[in-house]
């Protein structure tokens, strides 16, 4: 099984200033890791840490298609940035004005720093494994990520350990930011999840959760309503967040035309919120965020700490001095039968998972083969 590793020689410690890249990169020079299994390929951009590609290989209908092809670095890109599936750490959304003046970027530093390859991809025990890490100098946090891709199935598990390197405790947030894009994304793409109560991010303090809705419905302050399973030409409301009631959270995106599905699974105790971001360009869907994380309110920490909780779910987490915490999630691709109508629920069967199709009278169940990998 091939496991590829490319780190250009220009990226030495002398090019780093406080963990941030001090010199620009061309797209051709961006350091990267590729985990190549028998049926899938996972691509990681070390200039920002994004999982920029999750691709089914072979002659299946969705073979060669990358659902995460959003914001992919082009030849004009010269710096690390979030794209595909990137990590929001130490926050989700904007810094306060004072933090922004001190250089804190939107969504935190994790997508703006050079990640270090601590272990090149190697196959062991039925999976290709790699380890990478990053330090966030302004936040005072360090993150260590272990990625495993099953050798013979399109299933991966990502484990991230976050450490507060400071001498004082602090609040923080961690949100996974997968984003699907064309050609996988079009007006027929279906998004499903197991969110419960929700609210659009346009709400104002002190009750931003009003008006409250339930998945898959969204409503904003001016009364605009939407079925979030679909996106055609109107992205309002742009971001809607939902609390998860089950022990396991999940979100999927189905392309009936491509007969391909991408999905995520996680423990709700790790990530109690799922948030759906939608964007349209020139009248056509251009991006859909399938985000899940420790917060459901897209605001700076002064607002989050005043609000505290929504639907009895936390809006931030806390790490004491030198404390570490670990969270995991799984991501997978699945081949679909013709005219698949989306996912009603996901059931566990032994070590594997089953996608149950939506709609009355359906009996179609799609296995998600884990290859022996587990969230535990």
Estimate what percentage of residues fall within beta strands: over 45%
Q: What is the CATH fold-level name?
A: Beta-galactosidase, Chain A, domain 5
Distance between the termini: 25 Å
Helix content: under 10%
Unreliable residue runs: 5-26
Largest sheet: 8 strands, antiparallel
In the CATH hierarchy, the architecture is Distorted Sandwich
Describe this structure in words.
The protein is mostly beta strands and 376 residues long. It has one domain (3-368): Beta-galactosidase, Chain A, domain 5 (Distorted Sandwich). Helices cover 3% and strands 47% of the residues. Residues 5-26 have low confidence and may be disordered.
Question: Can you lay out the helices and strands and say which pair or pack?
Answer:
Blueprint: E1 3-6, E2 16-17, E3 20-21, E4 32-36, E5 40-45, E6 51-56, E7 85-90, H1 97-101, E8 116-124, E9 127-136, E10 141-150, E11 155-164, E12 170-180, E13 190-193, E14 195-200, E15 213-214, E16 217-219, E17 225-227, E18 239-244, E19 248-255, E20 260-267, E21 273-281, E22 284-293, H2 301-307, E23 309-310, E24 313-314, E25 317-319, E26 324-335, E27 343-349, E28 352-357, E29 365-368
Antiparallel strand pairs: 1-4, 2-3, 4-5, 5-6, 7-12, 8-9, 9-10, 10-11, 11-26, 12-22, 12-25, 13-19, 14-15, 14-18, 16-17, 18-21, 19-20, 20-26, 21-22, 23-24, 27-28, 28-29
